[in-house]
Amino acid sequence: MRSSNLPHLLLTLSYFHSAPACALNIALITGSTRTSGPPTVLHPRVNAFILNILEQRGHDVAQIDPDDFPLLEKPHFSYPPGRAPSKLQEVHSTLKDADGYVCVTPEYNHSPSPALLNVLNHFGSSTFSFKPSAIVTYSAGQWGGARAGVSLRTTLSELGCLPVSAMIHIPKAQEVLDRDGNINASTDNDVNDPERWQKYYGRCFSQLEWWAEAARCHKKVADPFDESPAFAKSPNQRNAP
User: Which of 89, 129, 167, 235 could anchor a disulfide with 84, C-beta 3.0 to 4.6 Å?
Assistant: First the structure.
């Protein structure tokens, strides 16, 4: 460690240990545009489930809907400053101001949904960088979209919002959750035990909260873009000398 970084590190640790836990700004990026089945359309109940959890944990949540995005033609970073369409600019501001991200996706052909990727691809990595993310997947089958979650990790890592290690997978979501996004406790299945689910998703979101608060605190003493500025000219800026 360089000695010049030590004062910044000590100040950050002091602030982090003395600061009370407080609400985070979380961008909840949902990933389905389906309107009908079969199979059952599951994203409304899953989105409601995750939204309720985050709000119950005391966070300010902004939900970003892929229905608001056309198929990518021109990303936000291709417009001159202040000249992007108003909706695109609004979402960019929401993402930029977020302390962390939660991405919710079904699994299509062992991959994240194209609707979710379309949203993410509208923005450059500097929008997301130096903040954490969490991955939530679901399916009507037994695997809960786990393969989509593994694939999504590389995308989020490249955007700079590193995903926490714990993910949330919801298999047979039509049985686990009712239409309002509540655990379906009307069945005798142990899988639908609310306490077990609370421990399961609590592991993921506690990791997200830890990293999000740590990153937010450290930005008060060190600007992460000082030595890692956003690429603003061309892709070859990332090339080796």
Answer: 89
In 3D space, the residue among 1, 49, 19, 8 whose CA is nearest the CA of residue 218 turns out to be 8
What DSSP line would sit under 96-146, residue for residue?
HH-SEEEEEEEEETTEE-HHHHHHHTTS-GGGTTTS-EEEEEE-SSTTTTH
How far apart, in Å, are the Cα atoms of 208 and each of 71, 136, 188, 234? Answer: 30, 12, 32, 32
For 129, list phi and psi in degrees, rounded to 5: -60, 150
Between the CA of residue 192 and those of 46, 181, 186, what are the distances in Å? 14, 13, 9
Burial of residue 202 (CB within 10 Å: 0-12, 13-18, 19+) is middle
